[in-house]
Write a structure and sequence with these properties.
The chain has two domains: about 15-90, Phosphorylase Kinase, domain 1; about 95-230, ATP-grasp fold, B domain (D-amino Acid Aminotransferase, Chain A, domain 1, 2-Layer Sandwich), CATH 3.30.470.20. The chain has six helices and 14 strands. The chain has helices at about 55-75, 110-115, 145-150, 155-180, 225, 230-245, and strands at about 15-20, 25-30, 35-40, 40-45, 50, 80-85, 90, 95, 100-105, 120-130, 180-190, 190, 200, 210-215. Helix 1 runs parallel beside helix 6. About 35% of the residues are buried. It binds guanosine-5'-monophosphate. The site of guanosine-5'-monophosphate has 15 residues, from strand 9, helix 2, strand 11 and strand 14.
Length: about 250
């Protein structure tokens, strides 16, 4: 993890804005910039199961840094600015939409349990789903007209969420393939800039994507924690090491 460059910054952290399941978000002395601190925490079932896992914050921060840097260098605008320490980064402050955009290349997780689908079958076309971001309601599925009626996003914004997610999917699928990893599915979040433009936000790590080793079929993501099938950081380490070889 030594290859990551930590940028010296004059920005100071001020008030805690929000504590998420695996990170804390602070305001800074710059009103347009937020400070993200990655926690050594893993959760499942929308926060109902919680555990401290040493080193996880550092791994997620490093992987997210690499993936956002890769997307930035490949023309996908996003909120990531730079990393300032092993567990901390600065991002552009956005007005986050209360929508999770899930993209599925292969059947897994809730797609399998909801439809009794054959696990790991290739999905053609690729499946895109929206969920309403609410822990109290267990992130319910939400459709376009529900989103419009509730004023969570405009029709144009929904088109952008779908298009942006497709672009991210293509770029990350190709990137992971190069290091022998299959991108099964993932969740993205987006926000509005001050000028009303839609920008990719949140983190990009094995906490919000399913990754499988192409050769062995081994899971390299948070499913290991969800299914109590071993030390989750082993897979995260593997993902980081392989990405560091090519980014
Ligand atoms: P599923 O709907 O099968 O549980 O999840 C589909 C994909 O989206 C998985 O890669 C999963 O990690 C991600 N995902 C779905 N909901 C959430 C969420 O609330 N938090 C996080 N971190 N990831 C999610």
């Amino acid at each position: 993890m030594d290859s990551i460059e930590y940028k010296k910054s004059s920005i100071s952290r001020t008030t805690l804005e929000y504590t998420g399941k695996a990170k804390k978000v602070y305001a800074t002395d710059n009103p347009d910039i937020l400070w993200i601190h990655y926690l050594d925490q893993a959760t499942a079932l929308n926060g109902k199961v919680k555990e401290t896992i040493r080193g996880k914050g550092e791994l997620n921060s490093a992987i997210s840094h690499l993936l956002f840097t890769y997307l930035t260098n490949n023309g996908v605008a996003n909120h990531y600015l730079y990393t300032i320490s092993k567990t901390d980064e600065l991002v552009t402050k956005l007005n986050i939409l209360p929508i999770e955009v899930v993209t599925r290349n292969y059947a897994s997780g809730h797609f399998v349990s909801k439809f009794d689908a054959v696990a790991m079958q290739k999905l053609d076309p690729i499946v895109q789903e929206f969920y309403y971001k609410s822990d109290e309601l267990d992130d319910p599925f939400i459709n376009d007209s529900q989103i419009l009626a509730l004023g969570f996003a405009t029709a144009d914004e929904l088109t952008q969420l779908r298009q942006e997610s497709q672009v991210v999917n293509k770029k990350l699928t190709r990137l992971f393939e190069k290091v022998g990893i299959k991108l099964i599915d993932f969740k993205l979040e987006f926000g509005r800039t001050k000028d009303g433009n839609i920008l990719l936000a949140d983190e990009l790590s094995p906490d919000n994507m399913r990754l499988v080793d192409i050769e062995t079929g081994k899971s390299l993501d948070k499913d290991v924690f969800r299914q109590h099938s071993g030390d989750v950081t082993v897979g995260y380490h593997e993902v980081l090491t392989r990405l560091q070889e090519i980014i």
